[in-house]
Amino acid sequence: MLQTLYKTPFSRAYWRDALADARKPRTLVFSALMVAACVALSYLRSIPVVNNIRVSWGFLARALCALVGGPVNALVFGFVEDTVSYLMNPTGGYNPFYIFTTMLGVLTYSLFLYRAQVTVLRVFLAKLATNIQNVFIGGLGTYLWYSGGKGYGAIVAASAVKNAIMLPIQTVMLAALFAALLPILHRMGFLPDQAGRLRLWSWAHAANAGGGTAGRPARPQEPRREPWEQPQKPRREPWEE
What we know:
The structure is a single chain. By secondary structure, this protein is mainly α. The chain has a single domain (12-137, 166-206, 219-240), classed as Arp2/3 complex 21 kDa subunit ARPC3 (Orthogonal Bundle), CATH 1.10.1760. The protein contains six helices and two strands. It has helices spanning 12-22, 25-42, 58-88, 97-113, 120-146, 152-187; strands at 47-50, 53-55. Strands 1-2 form a two-stranded antiparallel ribbon. Helix 2 crosses helix 3. The protein is globular and about 50 Å long.
């Protein structure tokens, strides 16, 4: 499966591909499965780290959906996932502000991971960006609705400590998940060839799958064949031996 890879999301072609992928039935089915995964993961016990800091599991399914579906699909997925997760497991009052933060978080994952060579460095940067959002934007939601008299600065400071502690743990969890699932998703046709395995970092400069090196023309790549599409040798009749 040949798909274009992009260094950055700042191109018209990137968003055209993202819109096309968001409309594909298989992307919608995968997103629905990830919504169900988020709901199921919300029932798992969170991981205690220190004091009252705990790492939950839902971000794994959100990042996986962002990787496959892209930024356009991420916005729809974030809205549906946050709403369904609350209805299936309501805790506290329903706050529409957190729909926005969920949508923004999944969008951020997709901008780092969709149609890109997936590396540990990209995973770290994606998690760093979403944790910064949790500190300042999530802290704003807490301040506006649940502050209990605390100032915004105090809420941000506490959230910054929590997210700084969780960052390396969540990065390792995401890297382990991608290392296990990227080859499978590639074989299923969800990911481009160059995104089929996790790398430590990327030294490649090519933006397209099959791009050439400097000074050399790009070598054309044959389309990937499924096992049932392999060419068959012509059958010989007995009298032709």
